[in-house]
Structure formats: C-alpha cells, structure tokens
Amino acid sequence: MGDTKHDPNTATISSHVLDTSLGTPGKGLKMALFVREGNGNFSEISRHETNEDGRVKDFKPIAAGVYKLVFETDEYYLKQNIECFYPECSIVFRTKLGEHYHVPLLISPFGYTTYRGS
Q1: H, E, C per residue of the chain
Q2: pTM for this structure?
Q3: How confident is the prediction for the chain on average, in pLDDT?
C-alpha cells in the first residue's frame, strides 16, 4: 500500500454504514454533518444519504475542528417495518488538517458501534 497524500490545508471524511442485524450495507440511510461552533453549539453543514454499498463519499473538505455525524436510524428501520431503540446515532469526532477520517457505523435495531476506519 503506497502513501496517500492529503491536502495539508483541509481534512476529508467518508462514512460507511453496515447493518449487522441483516448482514448488509445500510443503503438509503440519511445523515447530517454538523460542525461545533466557538460557542459550543453544533451547526448543520451538509446532508447525505448512503449509496447501495452503504457508503457516503461526497463530503466536501473540512477544516480542523470538532464535528458530529447524525445518522437517522429510525427512518431507515421504519422503511423496513422494524422498530428500533435508537432513533438516531450521533458520532462526535475531532479532525486535524492534512488527514482523512473514515467514520463507519455498525447498526442493529438495538445497538450501534463505531471506530476510526481507514
């Protein structure tokens, strides 16, 4: 695997949702990206929806800071006639310039987990 070069003036992110209860990608799951402002409040900066493979790759480059991805799991499971315990899953993470951040989410109707991917 060769070295991946990143723009030193921005950070980039991607995401991937896997539905562990079905063993399939979480396709068609909506999410929103927020940035934490100086006053500590989060402001929405973009909305996305996972593709057939459960991925979102069209995030615009971002600055260093604290961000939050909110995954709309209630709507995702309601479309499948499945009741879920977590109506949304929020992941708050920190970025630095010149880095890529892959933020995966593993979901089921009664649990979720995440990690920093590559």
Answers
A1: CCCCCCCCCCEEEEEEEEECCCCEECCCCEEEEEEECCCCCEEEEEEEECCCCCEECCCCCECCEEEEEEECHHHHHHCCCCCCCCCCEEEEEEECCCCEEEEEEEEECCEEEECCEC
A2: 0.91
A3: 94
